[in-house]
Amino acid sequence: MKSGLKDPYLTKDSWVKKWFAQRSADEDGSRPVLLKVRVEDTSKLRPDIEMYEEPLSSIIRRYTDRDLAQVTAEDWNNMITQGVVPYPKNDRDWETSLKAVRSVWYSGRITPEDILDVELR
Questions:
Q1: Distances from the Cα of 17 to the Cα of 71, 73, 79, 97, 103, angstroms
Q2: Structurally, how many domains does the chain consist of?
Q3: What is the pLDDT of residues 3-42, one digit of tens each?
Q4: Domain of residue 13, residue span
């Protein structure tokens, strides 16, 4: 973190950030870390297309009452095409991504000065 964060994915959703922190910790054998960052240049924010392609169960649950085990990738894609799940209008429509799938991608570097808080779990 001495050089900041390069091209991070960001979220305001507490469940999503805890899930990704735990997953990352499990992959590298460390403790989960949650960071609070400041984003001053919103022109670098982009939709999190990866979350649309492989959504977490908590995201799918927001758009259907069906048993999650029965929701296929095709079902999810149909929900997007039918407008049930809001989809970004273009590669700059990060606000739709943040509302719909609770995350965005930051195309650039978050400087160490913009890392406001570090929480070890």
A1: 23, 23, 24, 15, 9
A2: 1
A3: 899 999 999 999 999 999 999 999 999 999 999 999 999 9
A4: 5-120
